[in-house]
């Protein structure tokens, strides 16, 4: 398996399997006719107390790419201007693969996004209409976010999101694959988050209706905050293209893949924890009173095939949060760790996740409290999609990382005499310090535990990143 490094300047090849291209805007000769421009600041700053006034004049096409420019200027009673554009009333889709190749700024106060809203927003409002955020980024965060928002079966607002590291100022392909069973989020063809919407579980009926596309860059708001680095303005969001694919013309079908839901209280053995009634969706019990060093063991879970999996955890923490890790073989192999945020209450639930490479077979899993003060209601193992991921063209001069997955040694090919290379874990910790290597030189990663890592490379003054899996 060979994976190209960094940015892909070419267009994607024909999508594998039964995906068919049904709509696109390449922005080659201008902005296509299916976009409608929002004007103004909306209601309460578009519901987020955003600081900008949206204008069509802040969108242009330069060198075959859409450019959305955020400026510090007084207009319409606001101190900033930008653009928000949508396909509402002109193009909408039920299921499919929605992708865009985008480069965005990284500065305090910016909030660029590629997202979707349900067509029914004009009649039933938000969040009941549903929202799918393909990509969001705020401020100078090292991560991009993919999230869904909806009204659950109890009539309450709900959201479920994931995030992954990205060098956002470089071009990346951001995508979701959405069918009647799952929504999956991708960065450059690598899945990093998945949500189960099968049979409208947990009130997700909204996600079985048509949605329209949105591109925008906000300035300030409830999420990024209200401090803006005005010295970084004007700032540009570049969109090379937006494309929509569907299966057999309608987006449906597709193999949902393996998924196993495990109630936290169904452990085979444990140390230090207790159970209690939960008010989370579905009721029943959750595991709580978790202190640092406590653990739960779940035996004889069968993994049908080797590959990449997303591990989800339903957690709550009144204050301070914590950290958990997942392992097999009584802690001999750590598959990954995830930070648990403060949710403001022991029954205020959120879902966090990480990726892991799992070998086929029957395993005894363990959840270990690296630091305590959190509750867990359930956890889930979801096989990541592979067959429907588009193949990316690779140019001969692009850097190549192989083998991937690796049993313990990597090699990197690149155009240059040497490069500085460092390796980070999925929590952003530098686990192998930077050093200079030559093309094809062996890189020993055998000291790393099994899991997903980020290799960062500086070559010829340019930084590139690529994920790899340590088997």
TrEMBL record:
SMART domains: CBD_IV (SM00606). Pfam families: CBM_6, Glyco_hydro_16, Por_Secre_tail. The keyword Signal applies. GO terms for biological process: carbohydrate metabolic process. Residues 17-250 form the GH16 domain. Keywords: Signal. The keyword Signal applies. GO terms for molecular function: carbohydrate binding; hydrolase activity, hydrolyzing O-glycosyl compounds. Coiled coil: none annotated. Gene3D superfamilies: 2.60.120.200, Galactose-binding domain-like. Residues 260-382 form the CBM6 domain. InterPro entries: Beta-glucanase-like (IPR000757), CBM6 (IPR005084), Cellulose-bd_IV (IPR006584), ConA-like_dom_sf (IPR013320), Galactose-bd-like_sf (IPR008979), Glycosyl_Hydrlase_16 (IPR050546), Secre_tail (IPR026444). Belongs to the glycosyl hydrolase 16 family. This is Carbohydrate-binding protein. It comes from Sinomicrobium pectinilyticum.
